Amino acid sequence: MKQLYGKLWVKCTAIALLVVFAILFAASALGTAYLFTYGAYADGGEQVRQIAENEILQQTNGDGWTALHAWVDDDKITRDLLRERYDPLTSNIYFKLTDKDTGKILFSTGALNKDDYTGKASAYYQQDMTTSLDDGSEVTVVYQAYLKSPLAPRDSALYIMTWVERLISARYLLIVLAVLLLAVCLFLFIFLLCAMGHKEGVDGIYQCWLNKIPLDLFLALLALLLVAWASFLGDIWYIDFWYYILLASGTAALALTLILSVAGRAKAPGFFKNTLIYRVFAWIFRALGRIPMVWRTMLVWVGLCFADLIFTFLLGSREAEQAVLWLFSRGVLTIVILYLASSLRLLQKEGQAIADGQTDYKGKPIPRWLPALKKHEENLQSIQSGIQKAVDEQTRAERMKTELITNVSHDIKTPLT
After folding, report:
1. What is the C-alpha to C-alpha distance for residues 72 and 64, in angstroms, rounded to an integer?
2. Is this model's pTM higher than 0.90 or not?
């Protein structure tokens, strides 16, 4: 498996398969959730069928309004076109408009002069519609739509209900399919995480040009792409189900790009150093390091007081927000002061150890974000190292002196032969 990590075509294939299987998993998971929500596993899908049939009939109310306006305008052409569209020989849907006050049928899609629906209906939908007449009065009609049972003509209603029946029949298979697809997606995802940072023919971790972009800048670019994608969809697409599907797909693609990039960056040293924030703060600390410690401390304290003053003015009379800000700022300041005190205590221990002659003493290191204390620690370590070196030199000299005296004494005591 590790031999495949560095191969580009393997990674591209894994990404393509992950996208395909993720789409299939999302479809199967959504289908399973939908069926479970509407009780398909308990009632055999009866409620799901009713919802689908009602949705089909509700989508015809636009033609109901068209028929009502055609009746008001006495537009015979439009009414004939509607009757042709909903001809019983080619359509499973029948609807009619009835005057709510008189009960008179104003329009129906029945064949020829047929005024009412006499067949068996599997679904029924009703809605009141009100419109104005030429004389300024208003008329309210009852819009009633029916769905044939059984569905006979091959129209969109038959097509939709056929797929609904297939979904209900495969409701248990969907659960198994969702689990298997999830397992495959996890396998491909883990493989890609492991493969990031590897390139065929290159030893060690390889960072592509994308991973060389500072991480926070990369995040900002991805966020801009997401906003641009959402704006583009909003301009060319109505906000409906498919709008959210396309938006979610774009978001998932950008999220996958981010995760894989972070996986590659994490394998190389200096993960946080490749950020603009780190570089800015590093530059600030380097600049502060050139300022004497007293002036540096005063500058930091003045900055904190100024920030506190600005937030106080911005919050105004909002006492709750001021209390939260005060607690937060004092909490952070307390942590910093305690950390400084702890670091000073470490330096004190190290200085005391040197004073006591413990030249091999090793204390807890001071963090680099405290450059003044870190420099002091390095000075103490240099003194400690110098003392240790001097002690070693003195010990070596004493040992050589002792060995010389021993050898000379031995030569004097040995008689010449």
Report:
1. 12
2. no
